[in-house]
Structures are given as C-alpha cells and as structure tokens.
Amino acid sequence: MLIDQTDIAPFDEDRLVTLRRRIGMIFQHFNLMSAKTVWQNVELPLKVAGVPKAERQRKVSELLELVGLAHKHPVYPAQLSGGQKQRVGIARALVHDPEILLCDEATSALDPETTASILELLRDINQRLGLTVVLITHEMSVIRDICHRVVVLERGEIVEQGEVWRVFGSPRHEVTRTLLAPLQARLPAALQANLRANPTGPGDAMVLRLNLLGEPQLSDLFNDLGGRIRLLQGGIETIGTHALGQLVLSVQGSPHASHQLLERARRWAEDVEVLGYVA
C-alpha cells in the first residue's frame, strides 16, 4: 500500500503509530462511547496522546464548533440523532489534524436528508482544512455528489478509475456499469415491454442510449445519425463542473447499416449502448 507515494508495508510499529495520526477515520455505526459526553468522546484521543488540558479544551471547542455541535457538548450519544452522532465522529477523527480523512460507509446508516448534510460538512472540511477525504461506499449518488475521483474495486483489485464525471459518463468495466445502473433513468414501461434483443424484421428500429459530455448540437447529431429518429427519453445533470447528458433514441434505417450507425453515434457520445430493437 502506498500513501503519498510511500510504501508502508515495511513500516515498524512506531512508524505506523505516527502514520495513523496523519489519518482520521469515521465509521458507518459511529463507534461512540455511550458512557461519555459529546465533549469527552472528542477529547479522549487527545487525553490518550498526553495533550495538555488547555490545548485539549481549545481543540475540542474548535472542532465542535466546526461540526455544528458546540451546543451539544454536555449530552450523551443516546440523546443524539444519527446525523449528530456522525458529526461527533467527524470531530473526533480530526483531533490530530490529519492529512487524510477515511470515511468507511459514513452515510450508509443515514436518511437522505441527513446524508446530504453530512456530505456538505465533508465538502466544507475538505475545502477549509485542505485535507484529502477518502470515501468507501456502495452509494454511487454519494460519489456523484461530492467526489472528484473514483476508484472501482472488485475482489480487492482496481478495475476502473478516473475523474468522476468521466467514469460516470463512460463506464468501461461491467462492475462499474452494474453499480451505476440504479442512477440510470428507468425506461418507460411501454418501451421496456416492446424491446427485443435482436431485430425481428427489416422495419425494426435500433434503440440506443447515448451518454454525452458537454453541450452538443442535437440537430447536428440527429442529421449525422440519419434515418428516422425518435427521442424516447433524455436528461442532463451536472457532475462537478461538467455537464453530462443522456439520450435514449430509436433510429430506424437499414438493418445492414447498424455498424455504420454505431460508429457515427460514437463520434458524438462518450458511451453508446444498444438497448435492443423495437418494431
């Protein structure tokens, strides 16, 4: 494993202890100590490290203010909501001024509204403190909303990586496509019912899903594709600073020209998927 281009495998225990202080971590189920107050939970790592009391008080006060829980310092975890507990976990993870904040499924146990607020806090911490936030998650919407880069793992191996907007716009590996499938707009029921894996007659139309980056001129796209085109579904979203559009089209033309049609589509789209055929 490399951290800052340094292989940590040969590190002895003393070097690992020093390294761990550069890495803060928050957990899916918070891991707070129920018998200690919010203040005491955040202060504990500093006490263990032998930090003087005055410095502990300054640091804990500063961090509780940062995560929006200064008014909750005397209460116990049982009196907090899930989002508030995760904020305590974030404050505790920051006590040693880490360079990296590792978030292990940090929003998986939270409702959508609370998830959004925690992601906004992590974005603010990333920008204000200048630390790197590493999210481990199966929630592709979380990656879309906050991350700059993504690494897709299967059985411990990297199968795809890159900037989020590019991987989401043009997934190459089947695992990535499967993970991103829930974010795809559902096809209209009538279309799904009529889709066939293969053409059944010369008049069948090919149904394509195109992922488009930027702002292409659709009239030029349609003219280039040729044939009789119907727009079945479409939308656009912004990932970071990049516009990502998606179109579902049916294109009717000669069944012998399908290869040329796909080649023309790929001139315009980052990713082209044949969904099937309709009569």
UniProtKB/TrEMBL annotation:
One of its GO terms (biological process) is amino acid transport. The gene is metN_4. InterPro entries: ABC_transporter-like_ATP-bd, ABC_transporter-like_CS, ACT-like_dom_sf, MetN_ABC_transporter-like, NIL_domain, P-loop_NTPase. It is found in: Cell inner membrane. This is Methionine import ATP-binding protein MetN. Residues 3-180 form the ABC transporter domain. It is a peripheral membrane protein. GO terms for cellular component: plasma membrane. GO terms for molecular function: ATP binding; ATP hydrolysis activity. Keywords: Amino-acid transport, ATP-binding, Cell inner membrane, Cell membrane, Membrane, Nucleotide-binding, Translocase, Transport.
